[in-house]
Amino acid sequence: MADQIQDKNNFSEVGTESFRLEEKAPENGGRVIINIDDSNNDGVILMQSGDDADLSIMARINNYLISKMKIKPDTKATFFHLLSVMINAGIPMVKALRSLGSQEENKRFKLIVMDLATKIEAGMSLSQAMASEISGVFTEQDLGMVRSGEASGHLNKSMDSLAIDLEKASAIRKKVKSALMYPTVVFVLLVLVISGMMIFVIPSMTELFASEGADLPLITKIVVGISDFMVNYYMVLIGLIIAFFVALKFIKKTESGAYYLDNIKIHMPLFGGLIQKSYVARLARSLGSLLDSSLSIVTALEITARSIGNEVYKNRIFMAAEDIKQGITLAENFTDSPLFPSMLVNMVDVGEKTAQLDTILVKVAHFYEEEVDVAVNGIAKIIEPVVIVIIGLTVGAVVAAIMLPIMSLTDLAGSM
Predict the structure, then answer these.
(1) What is the mean pLDDT of residues 1-26?
(2) pTM of the full predicted structure?
(3) What domains sit in the chain, N to C, each tagged with a CATH number?
(4) Helices (H), 138-213
């Protein structure tokens, strides 16, 4: 372990907070248990290993909840920005990391940052410490840009660029999600309302129609049939829904399944164009930043492929990296694929010919980020009337299925 962990009550002051690092001797051949006690954060557990670890139930629950905390890209972006500023101001790396760790609100990321400080104090570089983290928080792009910054002596510049990339990628994801959120919420509410009517309203109306011997129109027969199925086989329906989501989760974990689902995503009606533009923006910004960090184009493409977040684009970018090794230019490679718009291809061609590919790619990224903004606003204007029409037709069909037999019974009663 690091020099800090010397005895059972070794204290390390970090900013205004005090952390107690505790090392317990292995019991029954078990491994070492390391705890970290943050007096301002209700006793956070940093690490627990060994089968016979003597931890309270609440401590185990706390440990589990912290390990499941989500670390947002914005959190990482802020971290790299501040670390860059502190290093540029001449603050030693270890001291800067501990200062940032003491101020971090996300407990999981706090522990990761403190662990980075410990590893660097033990002799690792920042990139080595990041690579050794098994949490998966730091991506290939994070590591690539930090390594490049360390090699070139411009670590603060690389971290600034990385922070900007993370912020831009996060902003694009939020915009795409916001475009998809409205129709998704409306669809879920519509399903719940219709299901409620099918389960609670239609059965009572069916009994009324049956007692009066009403002749049901076709639309009512269809609605009654759906209602009967939902009432009598609701367990089957619930099982099918659960099975669908379990199967979907399993498919996502397979390479071919993830490719198939990602291909559907980028070709969705109405939303496919928006999603493709978001990936093109992410590709251009990531590749431009990596090239600006003095990485080779093949290495930059491979890192971008691993961090792009879409299997279709990932495979195509890896293919481009292999083709470049054979002497084919990036522009020539992109020309053959419908995934890359002609504007991107033309700009890449100019960048390669003028040896300014990194600068041009960043400009392309900015252009497509603005295109995503325009597309989101356009979809919002289109989707609202479409959703209203769908709701009107669906609810109208159910209401008609109820009202037509009632009107028929009323006419029959009036004629008697």
Answers:
(1) 38
(2) 0.70
(3) 1-138 (no CATH), 170-416 (1.20.81.30)
(4) 140-152, 155-196, 202-212
